[in-house]
Amino acid sequence: MTVANNTSPQDPAFSANSQPDSERLWALVYDELRKVAYSKMSNESATLTLQPTALVHEAWIRLGGENQPPWANRAQFFSAAAEAMRRILIERARRRQAIRHGGDQHRIDIDDLEGLPASMNDDKHMIDLSDALDKLAQEDPQKAELVKYRYFVGMTIEETAKTMGVSTPTVWRWWEYARAWLHKEMNKE
Fold first, then answer.
1. Residue 45, φ and ψ in degrees, nearest 5
2. Residues 116-134 pLDDT 10s
3. What is the 3-state secondary structure (H, E, C) of 12-56?
4. What are the distances in angstroms from CA 22 to CA 54, 73, 126, 154?
5. Which of 11, 19, 112, 182 gives the lowest tally of CB atoms within 10 Å of its CB?
6. pLDDT of residue 49
7. In the chain, where the domains are located
8. What is the per-residue pLDDT for 135?
9. Counting Cβ atoms within 10 Å, is residue 182 exposed (0-12), middle (13-18) or buried (19+)?
């Protein structure tokens, strides 16, 4: 998936100076969001009833639907979209994990965040990740944003670097730090 950091100055869908054309914006981002959602949803448990299209549409509505706020660029939009998708998935996981639904399951340890998509079907793990990510955001918002891009949007290191406006080596360093920090936070007992 390629997410450019900016668009041409003539593109009204990503203009901080004007009200965005929501239909144009939807056309520009729908296919990319659908691919991201499909990628994330393919790793969900078989009991999940939410479909990728529904995830994209729910995220779109949370972002403003037909009344989109002005987006400075694609990076800002995809950051907000990643956060919206994360919150939707976490809310659904929390509902499924409620005690009345048998939610007091045991924690599964992880060795490496690169393998996280395979464990998306474990609601408890996803909730633990989200809680740890919220704590990381308080300590270091850039590294938390990087995790959202890598994990929830599915960006490569290079795409993340371009979107965040930093070098690839910087993203690698931040990614290694964030993975270690989250692993430590998630394994506190």
1. -65, 160
2. 444 455 677 778 888 889 9
3. HHHCCCCCCCHHHHHHHHHHHHHHHHHHHHCCCCCCCCCCHHHHH
4. 18, 14, 31, 24
5. 112
6. 61
7. 12-186
8. 93
9. buried
Identify the band that residue 150 occupies on the pLDDT scale cut at 50, 70 and 90. Answer: confident
Torsion-angle region of residue 138: left (phi > 0), alpha (psi -120 to 50) or beta? Answer: alpha
CB 168 within 8 A of CB 161: yes
Q: How confident is the model at residue 15 (pLDDT cuts 50, 70, 90)?
A: low
Helices (H) and strands (E) in the chain, counts: 7, 0
Tokens of 64: 């403003």
The pair of structure tokens assigned to 111 is: 């060795």
Q: How far is CA 44 from CA 1, 57, 81, 127, 164, in A?
A: 20, 18, 19, 14, 28
| 118 secondary structure, DSSP code | G
If you count them, how many residues does the chain have? Answer: 189
